């Protein structure tokens, strides 16, 4: 981070991160730097994390069901394609396992990708998730993976935690808009995301 009296240079540009298939199977932070100790990300395209949302005219108006392949979900609480879903549960009830199953099924059934954004996660949680995804084949260290991981962990400043969701969103938007892929974007979790925003607000004296 920055310290008082340190010299800084204003580039006049927003935070720009690597996007595309080079991010799959990798772990990056809020400014797009790899944090998985596997070398630089092989990306040819970059995008700013602050962008205008699509207009209403560009959005689909048809209501479609996203088939997850998980029978209890598809039967009792089907997910709408393009919609938002919240998963709520206590510790150890299987939220992460459920997310892994979703990522795996979407990849196999639709050839789509997933972006997992960890906001304020414990380092242990992020490491466990990464190892489990390697074991289940969702992340392939030798070939192409089906998920990109973006982490702004609990030990990072609130500004990083408040913006890391935008980094994950930017990667997901690239796959959606430029490659026409089905994309699942996970943000874990929303409480710590809003908490980071509250901390930033307090630091600014608002």
UniProtKB/TrEMBL annotation:
InterPro entries associated with the record: ATPase_alpha/beta_chains (IPR050053), ATPase_F1/V1/A1_a/bsu_nucl-bd (IPR000194), P-loop_NTPase (IPR027417)
Keyword GTP-binding: no
Catalytic activities: ATP + H2O + 4 H(+)(in) = ADP + phosphate + 5 H(+)(out)
Residues forming coiled coils: none
Domain (ATPase F1/V1/A1 complex alpha/beta subunit nucleotide-binding) ranges: 69-206
MF terms in GO: ATP binding; proton-transporting ATP synthase activity, rotational mechanism
Keywords: ATP synthesis, ATP-binding, CF(1), Ion transport, Membrane, Nucleotide-binding, Translocase, Transport
Record's subcellular location: Membrane
One Pfam family linked to the record: ATP-synt_ab
Superkingdom as given in the UniProt entry: Eukaryota
Entry's family note: Belongs to the ATPase alpha/beta chains family.
Protein name per UniProt: ATP synthase
Species of origin: Magnusiomyces tetraspermus
Lineage: Eukaryota, Fungi, Dikarya, Ascomycota, Saccharomycotina
Encoding gene, per UniProt annotation: ATP2
């Amino acid at each position: 981070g920055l310290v008082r009296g340190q010299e800084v240079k204003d580039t006049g540009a927003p935070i720009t991160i690597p996007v595309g298939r080079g991010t799959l199977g990798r772990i990056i932070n809020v400014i797009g730097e790899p944090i998985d100790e596997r070398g630089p990300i092989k990306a040819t395209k970059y995008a700013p994390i602050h962008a205008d949302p699509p207009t209403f005219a560009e959005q689909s108006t048809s209501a479609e069901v996203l088939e997850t392949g998980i029978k209890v979900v598809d039967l009792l609480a089907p997910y709408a394609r393009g919609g938002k879903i919240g998963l709520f549960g206590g510790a150890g009830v299987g939220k992460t396992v459920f997310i892994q199953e979703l990522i795996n099924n979407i990849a196999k059934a639709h050839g789509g990708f997933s972006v997992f954004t960890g906001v304020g996660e414990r380092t242990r949680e992020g490491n466990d998730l990464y190892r489990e995804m390697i074991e289940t084949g969702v992340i392939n260290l030798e070939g192409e993976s089906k998920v990109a991981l973006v982490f702004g962990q609990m030990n990072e400043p609130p500004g990083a935690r408040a913006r890391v969701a935008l980094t994950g969103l930017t990667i997901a938007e690239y796959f959606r808009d430029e490659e026409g892929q089905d994309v699942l974007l996970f943000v874990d979790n929303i409480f710590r995301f809003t908490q980071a925003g509250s901390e930033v607000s307090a630091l600014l004296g608002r």
